[in-house]
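Continuing the batch. This is chain 6 of the set; chains 1 through 5 are on the previous pages. Same settings as before, nothing changed between runs. Recording input and output for traceability.
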Amino acid sequence: MPRVLLLLPSTTYRAEAFLDAAGKLGLDITLGLERTAVLVDRPQFDWLALNFSEPERSADAVLEYAHVHPIHGVLGVDDATAVLAAQLSAALKLPHNSVESVSTARNKYRMRVRLHEHGVPVPRFIRCSIFDDPVAVAEQVFYPCVIKPLVLSASCGVIRANDPTEFVPAFQRVTSLLHRLGLPKASEAGRQLLVEDFVPGREVALEGLLTDGALHVLALFDKPDPLDGPFFEETIYVTPSRLSSAIQARIAACAEQAAAALGLREGPFHTELRINDEGVWIIEMAARSIGGRCSRALRFAVDFSLEELILRHAFRMELPSLDLERGAGGVMMLPIPRGGVLHDVRGHEEARSVPGIEEVTITAELGEMLIPLPEGTRYLGFLIARSAAPAGVEAALRQAQGRLVFLIEDSNKTESHEKEMRLNSGVQSIRF
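Output for chain 6:
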């Protein structure tokens, strides 16, 4: 059987879904792991210990392994492993997106430069160093603006500033975050920031699949909660979109134009776009599928998961249909309302009993330190809902969220102190 090398970072929500899909297809599986501790729950799989930050050494290890166990496809599950997958595919002489195209999509500044050069609408932007004087930089930008790191994802380190007095502390806050993560020592991109115009309007997410450069839209998600800042924590995704067919066509055309400009030609991609009176704007584009557990909101008419579809496409297996099943689906990424230690979670069964709710998954662990955006990188968990229409999905997600209670202990106090934090829409969480 064909063998897939699945690159898994030390923290990912995607492993189970891809492993299930590969098993269903009868593929031989080899795990490319950053840390062998991941194997505690998966001892049945072959594995390779790889240094994801050293692609040449990783390629040598993979080539040596492939002499005995031929590899027919390499798949990354997030931004960093997508780049490594392209590099390893090149070393193995397998079909793949070019390393240059995937690397450009990974770097927010390089991506915007390339899109701008090809006439794809992107916000006005500049690049600066974390060592620059923020007061001087504040005089060079237009307001409102958004400050963001070049290489982080999931809205980590992304802050809106409305004027110079907000810009300086926001700049310093993002710089401090990068230092805490050790990124300035890791790469040049970790020492730089992107500052771009804030683009008002509705935001959507497009999940696409490229075949020889041609785009098939797998799903267009509406984001019903406004994302206006100061931080940009995402919550609800619902598909199919309630936008008009004409606007959806413009969104798809913009996404296809952006993929072509970057040089992406094969496989999944995920892009964030904004729509306003001036048109459709690319905000982000990644050469990988949607993150977290969000893919579980998608159910295809032929009973494929998104992960199975991606693997079938990669191995040129039959794809009877790329259409979603009838009805609507959606996901809520449960936001972290404040920092502290998660002490307890209540209301799980009550949330699960809401009509339309299919899954209630709490991914945060009891005793875990919760860090909200813009410094945080995780969510409390995920809700998955399905209904006949998008409005029903959105209503079910909001109702289920309101039934969950998270007890968060203030980590700054020496005495145990519990406080109920009900995650009702617009009450305890910052609304973007």
